[in-house]
Amino acid sequence: MTRQKAGDDRIEQFEAEFHGDLIRPTDPHYDDARAVWNGMIDKRPALIARCRGVADVIIAVHVAREHDLVVAVRGGGHNVAGTAVCDDGLVIDLSEMRSVWVDPDERTAWVQAGATWADVDHETQVFGLATPGGVVSDTGVAGLTLGGGIGHLRCRYGLSCDNLRSVDLVTADGDYLTASEDEHEDLFWGLRGGGGNFGVVTGFEFELHPIGPDVAACLVFYPSDQLTDCLRAYREYVESSPDEVSTLVFAGELPDEELFEGDDVHRQKFAIMGCYAGPVDNGTRALSALRELAEPIADFSGVMPYTDLQQILDEDYPDGMRYYWKSLYLDGLSESAIDRIAYWADVAPSPLSTVDVWQLGGAIAQVDPEDSAFAGRHAPFLLGVEANWERPDDDDANLEWVRDCLDDMRQFSDGSVYLNFPGFLEEGEDMMRTTFGPAYERLVALKDEYDPTNFFSRNQNITPSGAVQTNGGDGIDE
């Protein structure tokens, strides 16, 4: 169905049944509605269905199936691969469905699929509770959770998907169901780390944990000429750090005139960021060694509200900037791997780009790999390569830098990736098979059961056995 056909009488019937807003290319706010966080994504859907509830989602799925429309599903719209929007098809937009209900006695939260982590934190922190989210507060809950969910609490309380009790969704046939450990168990397994392949998720039930209102946090900046020595010391630190500690190292120019002065603004540097999920006095002691690895350029560590920690990186990732992120699970931080990380951070074409090392292990590794589809539990570290830049003229240089870095760093990895940092999904099924390994066929079986025609293909796509392989990212293959 083309954009022209999408405006005919059948769409008027759709509008009569639909309680949300239907946004067409001729509407004055269409360009705002189709925009997503990543400024590289410039898709023009035929229609955007901004849902108000589950009934609207079911109606939208039926209309898309009836008219053979390509479908994209938008939650928070923060997905770096840009899969929340498509050309010529229908966007099922959940961004108005942002409510969060907390049961402090049961320590659970029910979260609508359009919510961001800021929405969740706002409601749960009133009760001194939290569930593991991301590290940027305006990230959407849905996309992050379905891809795993690596955040500040991961080593103590696991991934976002590890804290799910149940998931509500609308299938490709328009059926509404709940998946949990007690019903649709195999689907629940696939939703925990298998991406958005199996339906439109409308709500999540999360387990909550006592966190905050204050936490001990580390954010210290060092000069880049100390990176290799400090990474060696950091490697030793994480080998014996308690599970309450979750840390992240990111290296690049990191220019910020509000944080640094004079020559330090454009000086190559790296930062160590960490959170202690426990008593603040214990956390201050546990994180102190990370503040003494060398002479710091600046140290913003201390006790702070958990919500402040969740938002501390928000300004570094504004809407509309250009982003291209890829990843690899690392076998470890060998001497050679450390040297190559330092090299690639130094040659980044954009001063806003970083090479990141995420500490894993702890509670992530304590979950049996058979219990969820998430594929990274074996790895002690995750490498994230983030190209962040402003000018379209710089696209080629930044894409090349990320891809060259990943090609080089595969020598320290089994080739599996974190599906929330997948570039533009340009490797298609090869990336998915490599990442999931033997579990891939189990995911295919789920896809065959719940979406045999690949109705939901704009995602980290699992191709059903009877369908033609697609590129879930719609491919930006420069």
Quick summary:
The protein has 478 residues and is of the alpha+beta class. It has helices at residues 9-17, 30-34, 54-66, 117-124, 141-146, 154-157, 185-191, 227-240, 280-287, 306-311, 335-346, 363-366, 395-409, 429-436, 439-450, and strands spanning 21-23, 47-50, 71-74, 90-93, 100-103, 108-112, 129-130, 164-170, 176-180, 200-207, 209-210, 214-223, 245-252, 269-276, 298-299, 302-305, 322-330, 354-359, 381-389.
Report what the structure shows:
The protein has 15 helices and 19 strands. By secondary structure, the protein is α+β, with helices and mostly antiparallel strands. Mean pLDDT is about 95; it is low at about 5.
Major sheet size, sense and barrel closure: 8 strands, antiparallel
Mean pLDDT: 95
End-to-end C-alpha gap = 28 Å
How many DSSP E strands? 19
Based on CA atoms alone, the radius of gyration comes out at 22 Å
Structural category:
alpha+beta
Low-confidence stretches: 3-7
Strand proportion: 15-25%
Q: Number of helix segments?
A: 15
Outline = globular
Residue share in helix: 25-40%
Summarize the topology.
Layout lengths: L8 H9 L3 E3 L6 H5 L12 E4 L3 H13 L4 E4 L15 E4 L6 E4 L4 E5 L4 H8 L4 E2 L10 H6 L7 H4 L6 E7 L5 E5 L4 H7 L8 E8 L1 E2 L3 E10 L3 H14 L4 E8 L16 E8 L3 H8 L10 E2 L2 E4 H6 L10 E9 L4 H12 L7 E6 L3 H4 L14 E9 L5 H15 L19 H8 L2 H12 L28
Parallel strand pairs: 2-4, 3-4
Antiparallel strand pairs: 1-2, 5-6, 6-10, 7-11, 8-9, 8-10, 12-14, 12-15, 12-16, 13-14, 13-18, 17-19, 18-19
